[in-house]
Amino acid sequence: xxxxxxxxxxxxxxxxxxxxxxxxRPERLDRTIVREVLPGAGPLAGWVEQVWxxxxxxxxxxSLSALIxxxxxxxxxxxxPPSERRHGHALPAELLHGVVLERxxxxxxxxGWVVGLHLVPGAIMDLTGVPAYRWTGRVVPxxxxxxxxxxTPVWDAEGPAAxxxxxxxxxxxxxxxRVPSPDGRRAxxxxxxxxxxxxIRTVEELAARVALSVRALQRLCRDHLGVTxxxxxxxxxxxxxxxxxxxxxxEIAEIAHxxxxxxxxxxxxxxxxxxxxxxxxxxxxxxxxxx
Length: 291
What we know:
Blueprint: H1 26-32, E1 33-39, E2 48-56, H2 62-65, E3 74-79, E4 85-86, E5 89-90, E6 93-97, E7 112-119, H3 123-128, E8 139-141, H4 142-145, H5 152-156, H6 160-175, H7 182-196, H8 203-209, H9 214-224, H10 229-247, H11 252-259, H12 264-275, H13 279-290
Antiparallel strand pairs: 1-2, 2-7, 3-6, 3-7, 4-5, 6-8
């Protein structure tokens, strides 16, 4: 096989929302929550895509919090009513979230907040030595997965912006000057190619682009990303389909054709599995949200 190189990420399609793109109903969610997003800059640039911080003072139903899952790990600090259990854990909580393979959406009570590290895909194994697949579909205590963090400054901070700044400062101290392993870098490239290169339609094509056999690619994705190559490609196409549903008036059959589905029925099946709503119904919901 030929050699491979890291790729720079292409521009997102026109109309894309770089930090909010995977949220299924961004217009409605923006009216319900306060959010702060900081890039993973400086010493965090190779490890953290963003530090995100949300707060809300009214109920947020799962239909609004739903998003198209990203193939990465989130580390969160979460607060709310003392009687609430979130992700199966009593609040307050410090949690590690593995990749969610299907629809993600969470009913949130009348008030609360969460601040989190959105890790770069492929980062968790380099940072902890534990394969990413161990966490897929699971939410576990942060300290059980990655001990040694003192998150007191985050709990002491007031408001979404201050909590994001505090978590970023703690993460910079914990991550320090680490550098990704060769396999970690390759996993990052695989994820970017699957997400951004619309010319790659099959697992075999993705493997060829990074000079791996299909079996080696599957192992790399399992250990560093926690998902299969096929899931990466399907998720990327569903995200693109959602973008076109949200920003164009293209017929759903045309969207399916442009993005490489066999027909509209196959697009509907995959889109519904990941978002929980058929594309035709989702378009009607989005139109209502914007009105």
